[in-house]
Amino acid sequence: MDTNIIGSKIAEARKKTNMSQAQLAQRLFISPQAVGKWERGESMPDIVTVNRLAEILGVDLNYFSENFLPAGDETATRMAIGSIRDGEQMEQEEANLSGSPERQVPINLTAIDLQESDFAGVILHNGKFNVSPLRRANFAGADLTGSSFEVSDACEANFDGANLTDCNFSIVALTDASFRKSILVRTTLNISGQGAKFIDVNLIDVKLTRTDLRKTIFENCTFNGVDFNYCDLRGICFDGQTFIGVRFDKSSLNDVSFRGATLRNVSFTPPFSVTNKSYRAMKTICFDGATMDKLTYAALKGLRIIDLSKVTII
Fold it and tell me: What is the pLDDT of residue 70?
């Protein structure tokens, strides 16, 4: 979900309750500045905070979904039904024994309890798993092309071998979720929770924005055309993995390890302006035994703070 959209929804609900930013911040045990950043679209609350916001502001969790429609609006209801039919219709899988096409009907998977559900091997294009609890759900081997997951708890969910091309994960908790050999092409991820596992995955044109990736496990992965925007990558191990055309844009990289990794056309932009703080963070990155092209090497060497003595230039 777009940060500006959820920010405006927070502001609208807060004003309807005649609550100031400071009062809301006090109830959430955070600073008023943090609430202000949400409402201006500069940052986004995590899934746990979204649940707490819904309680404090007296709204349904579905309110924060981009396609939320007010109750009692008949016109909106008709539009919602049409949207479900257009957005959730599955592709024809096979013909039945009579030779006629098998009829596919839309199934509403939004704002319902789907915890521990078995979706292994299903085919569902453009599905909507929005505001639905998905803890320990099994999507192994499923084709979920174009589907969206918004404001959901998908901790411990199994996406092993799933086709997640063009999928959108927005404000989704993925603690201990598994993505072994998943297909991630043009997938967008704005997730919370720590400890998701990406093993034997080829990430192509994937965008990770404002995402907490601490303790996330990446093993034997290839990153091709991937953007890390405003991500928390502190302590992540990328040892031995391949990065091609990757941007680390204003992401926290303290103690990140690229030992033995291959980097070609990789850009690093510190999360701060050129300050002692950003320099200290970049200095903790380890490139021992890495292989990189001349342009990537020159850009890093120009910072004059990173140890590149054990890097091989190609």
Answer: 56
